[in-house]
Design brief:
This protein has helices spanning about 1-10, 50-70, 120-125, 130-135, 165-185, and strands spanning about 20-25, 30, 40-45, 75-80, 80-85, 95-100, 145-150, 155-160, 195, 205-215. It is an alpha+beta fold. Helix 2 (about 50-70) packs across helix 5 (about 165-185).
């Protein structure tokens, strides 16, 4: 499976082609964590230290996360951790996030009853079945920072505006979360998905504009 994962990593589709992201599979002993992990390997994900870089990291490596699960592997996004000196950081990048990787005791997929998620009414300004994949996307501490508004065929994608305390604890991960959520919209609409930044985006109280999408 590791060879399959490495080959798949080479073909990950970026959300923002110019934002640099790089991933690597490492033995768990090359990482340092607050909790003990018994998984044999981790995927470490580096990005340029920008919002676009973090967005790209989530978007690209959620593709790998879903592929790993299709192989029967178990995964878990890990936001708190560091690397030993055995793992150099690519020039111009920072460690963005990690992903635990191993063989689960049971099937890696969850059932619908396992999901604690926002309702569609909390997710968007109007009902839209196409957003179900976004609604089920994982996020740090299940924070679900996304909101969607509609303007004709265009979907405006928003991220919850955080206060100072939550910005320290969730700021980086919520930007990665938005990439993960957008990946779910991409994989369920691969032929038609389009993402871009508006030059003069709209505003919405309590929300930060992330980008615009058509499906």
């Amino acid at each position: 499976p590791l060879a399959d994962l490495r080959a798949y990593m080479d073909g990950l589709v970026p959300l923002i082609p110019g934002a640099k992201v790089e991933g690597r599979i490492i033995p768990t002993r090359h990482g340092s964590f607050l909790q003990k992990w018994t998984t044999p390997h981790f995927i470490v994900i580096f990005s340029e230290p920008t919002d676009d870089g973090l967005l790209n990291a989530g978007f690209m490596y959620q593709q790998l996360d879903l592929y790993a699960q299709s192989l029967g592997l178990g995964t878990c996004w890990v936001g708190l951790g560091s690397l030993t000196n055995d793992e150099p950081v690519p020039e111009g990048m920072k460690l963005a996030v990690m992903m635990a990787l191993g063989i689960p005791d049971a099937v890696p997929e969850r059932t619908p009853a396992d999901f604690r998620r926002k309702t569609m009414q909390e997710l968007a300004d109007q009902p839209d079945d196409r957003l179900e994949a976004l609604r089920l996307a994982p996020s740090a501490t299940n924070s679900q920072p996304w909101f969607v508004t509609h303007d004709g065929d265009t979907l405006y994608i928003w991220r919850e505006e955080l206060g100072l305390i939550k910005q320290r604890t969730h700021g980086r991960m919520n930007k990665i979360d938005m990439g993960i959520g957008l990946c779910h919209l991409y994989v369920t609409n691969q032929e038609t998905f389009r993402f871009w930044h508006e030059e003069n985006p709209p505003t919405l109280d309590g929300q930060v504009y992330v980008g615009s999408v058509t499906l």
